[in-house]
Amino acid sequence: MKSLAVVPAVAMAAMVYSASASAGCALTLTFDNDLSKQVTVLQVDSLATAGKWKSAYTKNFTVGAGKKLSKAIEIPQGCGSTSLRVKYKVGANSKYVNKGPVATLVKKKITIEFDD
Questions:
Q1: Taking a C-beta distance cutoff of 8 angstroms, is the pair 35, 22 a contact?
Q2: Contact residues for 18 (Cβ-Cβ < 8 A; gap 6+)
Q3: Beta 109-114 vs 25-33: how paired, if at all?
Q4: How far apart are CA 41 and CA 38, in angstroms?
Q5: What's this model's pTM, rounded to 2 decimal places?
Q6: Distance, C-alpha 16 to centroid of its chain
Q7: What pairs with residue 75 in β-bridges?
Q8: pLDDT tens, the chain, 116 aa long
Q9: What are phi and psi of 19, to 5 degrees?
Q10: What is the DSSP string of 36-57?
C-alpha cells in the first residue's frame, strides 16, 4: 500500500513543476521618448538565451514627444537572461530598438529609450 500513496504525490509534483516551468515573467517596461515626435509602439518581442523571438505585447500605444509611459507586460518564456525588441513607428517609418540581454530574474523594471 505504501507504493500506491507515493504515485499520486509524484504525479502531483510533476504537474506543479510543469505548470511553473511554462509560466511567463512579469516586467514593467518604461518607454522613454526623447524624440521631438510622437512614437507609436507596435510590438514588444522577447528572446531567451537559447530560442526564438516570441511576441510579448501586441497592442499599439503612443508615447508623446519628450514623454514616458510604463506598461506591465509578461514575457512568454519566463525569467532569466532575456533580450527585448520593440517595433515602433515615427511618422511613416517603422524601426526597432533592442535591449539586452537583461537578467530578468533580478531586474523587473526596464527602460526602453527612443532617441536619435
A1: no
A2: none
A3: parallel
A4: 10
A5: 0.78
A6: 23
A7: 25
A8: 555 554 444 444 443 333 344 578 999 999 999 999 999 999 999 998 778 999 999 999 999 999 999 999 999 988 999 999 999 999 999 999 999 999 988 899 999 999 97
A9: -70, -40
A10: SS-EEEEEEEEEESSS--EEEE
